[in-house]
Each structure stands twice: as structure tokens, then as C-alpha cells.
Amino acid sequence: MSEQRVATAASDGRLLRGARSRRTIARHAVDVASVEGLTALSIGRLAADLGMSKSGVQALFGSKENLQLAAVEAARETFLAEVVRPAAAAARGLPRLRALVESWIAYAESPLYPGGCFRVATLPEFDSRPGPVRDALARDTHDWQALLAAELRRAVANGETADLDAELVAFQIDALLCAANTALRLGDERAVDKVRRALDGLLPVPTR
Amino acid sequence: MSEQRVATAASDGRLLRGARSRRTIARHAVDVASVEGLTALSIGRLAADLGMSKSGVQALFGSKENLQLAAVEAARETFLAEVVRPAAAAARGLPRLRALVESWIAYAESPLYPGGCFRVATLPEFDSRPGPVRDALARDTHDWQALLAAELRRAVANGETADLDAELVAFQIDALLCAANTALRLGDERAVDKVRRALDGLLPVPTR
Is CATH 2.160.20.10 the right assignment for the domain spanning B3-202? Predict the structure, then answer.
């Protein structure tokens, strides 16, 4: 290889290693934040947990806020991969809505993070603190409810349920799931059954 | 006064001042925890905020966990005084259920604490950490849902609603209120309207 190609390859290697380290750190940040909150994240703490140098973690993230934002983004990607995408196999409308709820229940029952649902664990911590972290968590909430509302509208259009206020029912389903996540953390095994029964009550049977 | 009575009066005064300081500190702890979480409470932080000596606060509470428990207890007393007791003026059954929900909405709209509902702000922080703080917050959740369920059962008995699963509907109402609290913190003004409309949907009209 020419000197230039060797230098380029070395630089590519550094970038790749940097991206991999960034992912490793962000994933660990999600675990820590799911139990202790995003406020508990610090560059020194994560470096110590992972046996990395503090200056190395500092170079990758720059600030505590960037670390918090990287954790929110990593949790969002995992949520899309584990909850949203598997449900895409179901037909649009009521089947996909039920698939989304069921994959969410599986996610809350055998959580990917020690503290359960990441958004439920962190949003109440940041909902009164304006800034980019709150905005990112609010966007997650908005996008999730919009996804549920879209399937509810499709269910009405398909004649799978009677007419309903899709935005209101999406808000109620999200409220139920968040409450069930907390109840599961507190050891209430009946929370999942409550979600399923409440969901049935929120979906009016079509009259025709 | 005899020397003994002087000593007793001085001791009573110290106890009274101690109880008053304890209340002042616990109330400030509720304010701090409603925004920053119970983890942010420390004896040094509260002493500094209130211009008290750290050793004085230490003598009154002993440990960070006792300070957290005092905050949970102070928030519970305020909730009883501001949300539960005012609703007792309404007749038992549906009127009192609606009064409880309306006084809860007023509490979430113009919160007593800078971070909104104390339980919503702190339960997700502690739901994965077994111990007396989690137990105290879980008791608050249980008691509040039991109160709602009792009025729902009374509403059915009074013929004010058709038959319903009181425990399930109480879980749903609490889920809605918690979600509305978070939505209000994020600036969603329509959250209150959603709660009222969703509540109507949860209360089946009596058939007779």
C-alpha cells in the first residue's frame, strides 16, 4: 500500500473504533439511566464502569448532555428494532395495533434494560427541564403515539372497529402501557392482563 | 418557674423548633425532588439551600434515605389535603369520583411543586430500586387507586354507571392522570381535555 493509503486505512480504523466505542458507551449509558436516571450519567462514571480512560470518553462525547442525548438515541433505536419493526409483519390496522401492544408488553415484561422502559424511566426526570434532552424524549412520545393513532385510523377505515378518536385512544393506550411498566417494576403481575382487557374496552366493536 | 419547669420548657421549645425545621426541610425536599428526583436530595444540599448547618440537618434526619422518606411523607400529606379531602364534600359515588379527578387536574395544572405531581416525578426513579422509599411510593399508588375503585363500586351500587371492573377502571384513571401530568409538563394544553373525554368513555351509561 502507498503511504497515503496506509494513513487512510489507519484513520478509517480509528473512526471505526471510535464509532464502536461510542455505541458501547451509549448502550451502557442506557442501562445506567434506566435504573438511576439520566442525571446519574457522567463521563467519569461511565469511563470507570467500562474500564476506559476518562479523557477517551470525554473526546467521544464532549459533554454530559451529549452523553444523555446519545443514550436517548440508542434507546430509541433499540425500541424501533425490538418493538416497532417486529410488528410490521402484521397487516396494517387492528392486527398491527395489537402486534405493537404485544411486542411492547414483551419488552416491558422481559426488559432490555434493568430499569424497564427507558422512556418511562427518564421522561418524568426531564419533563420539567427544558432543553434538548427533554425535546428528544418528547419526540419519542409523540412519534410512538402517532404510530398508534395511524393504525387506529386504519382500523376504523378497514371496518375493524367502530369510529373512534384515534388521537385520544392512542394517548390512552400509551398511558396504559406506561402505567403497566411501572406496575410490573413494582411486582404487580396482573398489570399485563389489565392492559389487554383495557385495550379491548378502548376498541369499540363495529356495528355492521 | 422552678428550675425543672424552666428546663422542661426549654426542652419543649427545642422539640417544637426541631419539628418545625423538620417540616421546612421536608417541604423543600419535596420541591427539589419534584424537579430533580429523590436521588438529588442530600443533607448538604438541603442545608445549603435553606441556610442551615449541615450538622443540624444531619441531626434531624440522620441519613439520605430518611430525608427521602420524609419528602415522600410530606408530599403524601399535601396530596391528601389538596386533592383527597376537598373531594369529600361531594356525595359518594360518581360525584365524588369526578370531584377527585377534577381536584387532581387542578393539582396537575397549577402544581404545588415546580416539577408537577410528586409521585409521577419520583416513582419511575425508584420503581427498580427495592427498599423503603419504593415501598412508600408504591403504597401511595395503591391507596390512590383503592380510593378511586371504592367510589367506582359505589357509583355502580348507586346505579350511576353500568357494571364495571372497578379495579381495572381505577388503574386506567390513574394511568390517564399520570400521563396527563407528564403531557402538561411538556406543554400539551389539550391533555386535560383528553382526561375528561377519556373518563367519560370509561364510565358506562346505566341501562335502566
Answer: no
